[in-house]
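Contributing new complexes? Match this layout with uridine-diphosphate-N-acetylglucosamine.
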Amino acid sequence: MDEIVISGGRKLSGEIAVSGSKNAVLPLMVAGLLTDEKLTLRGTPRLADTRTLANVLRELGAEVEEFGQGPGEGVNVQAADLASTRASYEWVSKMRASFWVLGPILARAHEAQVSLPGGCAIGTRPVDLYLNGLAAMGADINVEGGYVNATAQGGLKGARVDFPFVSVGATHVLMMAASLAKGETVITNAATEPEVVDVGHCLQAMGARIDGLGTRSLTIQGVERLSGADHTVTRDRIEAGAFALAVAATAGDVTLTGIDEAALGALAPAMRLAGVALRDAPDGLQVKGPSGRPQATPITTEPYPGFATDLQAPFMGLMCCADGVTRIRETIFENRFMHVQELARLGADISLEGDTAIVTGVEKLYGAPVMATDLRASVTLVIAGLMAEGETRISRVYHLDRGYERIEEKLSAVGAQIWRQSA
Ligand code: UD1
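Output block (do not edit by hand):
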């Protein structure tokens, strides 16, 4: 199994190109199931998660084909026929987003059997919002033997779906299902994440009639059929945030190309408070770390436009060496602090009080062997390893490969001493 080795203490400088968004490309590929025509997605990242999803889609009868290289690369999805309406445990258990095929299959084929999902072990992550939403649209649903079995005789019908709280995935699935349902669907408490808006724009290009994108209320008029489209995926604000934090952590000076400060959302003001300089430059966002220790800066994760839960762990990485005590509160997932014990191996001083991590900044971290525990936690260990004195070895890097494209190449190109080796 591969491990990533980092020899810390190098300042990062130069340019890093931000990839296409993982959290957008996955639902966009799923949207390809809604039509028999070809959906072309451009600017897509090459990740373990996109390969897993491609296998789920192939199992359903879709053709999925990557094309090009570098900025011109992309993926075509064409589901001329849905040869199967069953998404098996073998693939769906590897990644939660593959469960999202339930919406399009049910909307198009009026029946679906989809394994209950897997994904990062960051909480219980139930699927009640998805199932209640689809049931409100007329689906008959039972869960048996680890599978969701759903049928919608005569097709899904428009309905009012009031989510009790915000869910990104349930919004994607209901928005897709409603696009092919009969009549009008109103979704309240919808997610407003930029990736949801990106998927909404692609669905509109495919002929969907969606109003209210980017607000908490979506109104969707179902159409008989959707067509293919050619869509460029939005850039990855979570990858960009992780790089911005890595630059800050090493007192570096790097331009992140392809994004601007607005893309960082609530991370930008938090970084400024911590003493990081951010400047929109013609080719991207320039990030300059503080010359001394960053200032302790409290954050609380919330649905967009609040502080992204996916950036909680990387932000904690930076705060490990902050001047002062930082309170970091996680309100989205109940078990998203697995990185805490790994950061402690590097010398961080963090205690947990319920949903809050209390980080007492230390002068320095020291390299050590650590283990990646989930996707976003793994990048935190990279950030901490870049800051630390000495060598950090990160095992279980398959978590990292799920969501960060060529991370060791991108970071070595800006001066980090980081490499991959077989353990
Ligand atoms: C997506 C993102 C993930 C991000 C998360 C929150 C992708 C591929 N993944 O995950 O990176 O961390 O949004 O921004 O885009 N919940 C229920 N019942 C449900 C659905 C969700 O209780 O039926 C709960 C979850 O357990 C969690 C909260 O709702 O506590 C929010 O989760 P959700 O927004 O659904 O996350 P995902 O869509 O899985």
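Reviewers usually confirm one structural detail per submission. For this one: The mean pLDDT is 95.
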